[in-house]
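Ticket opened by: R.M.
Priority: normal
Category: complex prediction / small molecule

The reporter submitted a protein together with nicotinamide-adenine-dinucleotide and asked that the result be attached to this ticket for the collaborator who will pick it up next week. Submitted input follows.
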Amino acid sequence: MTTYKLALIPGDGIGVDVTDAAMQVMGAAASRFGFALESENFPWSCAYYLEHGTMMPEDGIETLRGFDAIYLGAVGWPATVPDSVSLHGLLLPIRKAFNQYANIRPHRLLPGVEGPLKAEGFDILCIRENTEGEYSGAGGRVHEGKDNEVAVETSVFTRAGVERILRFGFEQARARRGHLTSVTKSNAQKYSMVFWNEVTRELAAEYPDVTVSHMHIDAMAAKMVMAPQDLDVVVASNLFGDILTDLGAAIQGGLGFAASANINPDRSAPSMFEPVHGSAPDIAGKNIANPIAAIWSGAQMLEHLGEAEASAAVLSAIEAATAKGIGIRPGLNTTDEITAAVIAALEA
Ligand code: NAD
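Result attached by the on-call engineer:
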């Protein structure tokens, strides 16, 4: 029997609840499809930071390297640890160290879920660049606290980084409905984003079967509200992708439905799977977090591990649960009830 080694980082707040829910469903899928999941829990979180002064141990990255995949709940507890510390101390280092350059975020309406726009037919795949761009961490501050203080944060776009994420997007578009929308702000950002457009055009010549649209981020935000059904694959930089995918999540009914995978496409290091949402301190510990985003992220993990049939079955089980009205609106069901409904559908 094939055994997959998983590193679990539940993190903070609802991250803990939804990781537990996702692992229950993954365990049920493993039993049904004849493989095993062996998981090790890592308590790296804001609570860990308060005790140790770091978000993870010095050898944390090397520890994770030996696993087949990493599953993360959510990290952040702004009441005690600044978000910039928790993000730059754990998530971003993992994404960068393991070259998880493709952040894949599917957004579509599940059966029974209307979303605020009732955008029937809404089904997009956002590909967010995940290792450089606006989140490269290049910058600094001088004269802190003085009148002449200066803060500089530089976006970094490399040819290798831009080309590989766009190529990934073209491949995904080819496997879907054949349309790619590249999102920039090339009217205002005349170096990095003009460069991004040039690389898009160069690659487009290699993919004559894919139609390409270029959109500015502001127009794209409007388009996602006015005509989201017209979009297929969307490729964007780290910051723009981050923002657009919260909009995508809202259109699909809320952050509780938005899954994400941080993929290292060449498989030279583990990939990481996590819901888009954060630790939601406002609902933490209340057993009301929607675990569907986390379970869907687990399905992405199974697909990446090569268990395509199990992955598809988990997605079908999510759809069967929402089609019955389970978890389709906040407050309707508890985390436990939604998890149990998905497991029941998976085992039916
Ligand atoms: P958030 O995603 O945690 O919450 C935003 C809103 O959505 C809240 O009202 C919350 O209750 C709701 N929500 C989120 N997930 C939900 C779910 N599964 N079911 C039902 N409702 C849900 O974003 P935030 O409040 O901006 O951030 C809280 C903390 O999480 C911060 O520390 C932030 O840095 C961190 N964060 C972490 C990640 C991550 O680990 N990948 C992502 C985003 C934010």
